[in-house]
What does this fold into?
Amino acid sequence: MNNTRHAGLEVVFFNRVPKVGSQTFMELLRRLSMRNRFGFHRDHVQRVETIRLAPPDQLQLASMVSGYETPSVYVKHVCFTNFSQFSLPEPIYVNLVRDPVERVISWYYYVRAPWYYVERKQAFPDIPLPDPAWLKKDFETCVLNGDRECRYIEGETHEGIGDHRRQTLFFCGHEDECTPFNTIGAMERAKKAVEKHYSVVGVLEELNSTLTVLENYIPKFFKGASQVYWDEVNNFNRINRNAFKPPVAEHIKDIVRKNFTREIEFYQFCRQRLHKQLLALKLPSQTTS
It folds into this structure.
């Protein structure tokens, strides 16, 4: 249950999944780096987020991370990168997951938030503004009208910043087999990567359990994580929060869930693993919330 002992590199590699609370988690790591005295490194903002990398780029990434002075943390939106296939020592892999349907709703409104495009235009002035009708379209209408954006077709492959349906992609890897949406193959590869390589995969909906497991399984980096998080929870919760996201009716979510079967199974797999890790600690008072 504890892959931390298998790591050959004292570097935490957080290949963060978008819209799972990863901005807050990254800020937690930054503050812990000052408290627990480790280096903090993150990828720079990109015009187009490159999640899947060709083998030479994977090697370049793994070599760069391996070159950091230890102990350190590195944070990047990227698929699982297997350092050992390049004969490099494995880092301490961590990540977070979220209910897949809640996550896709969050992403839908995130890319429509006014401040999102203000930030993008400031960073990249030549980026064109989107169609106002697209910005105003709500998720429920998108689903009920069967709009292309909200159909979530099994086996479909779509690259680019607009497609963040596949939470499994960040655990499956860079291979072509990982790209089709909601497939058994991608899900099974993602599960195997979590079991074999990841020290901890936290769950956004179960923060207490996540922080407790991190503190006990990776203490050098996460000592005091619960205290730091909850003492400053109001500040953390403001990071990347989208005030423009309206509530979505449960019957709409149920429609979407029918097309997220393998993504949901992978999410539940990660939840069960976290629960088992927590139980294995045999703490006097345990929580799974």
User: Anything to note?
Assistant: The domain at 3-281 is CATH 3.40.50.300 (Rossmann fold). Residues 261-281 form the longest helix (21 residues).
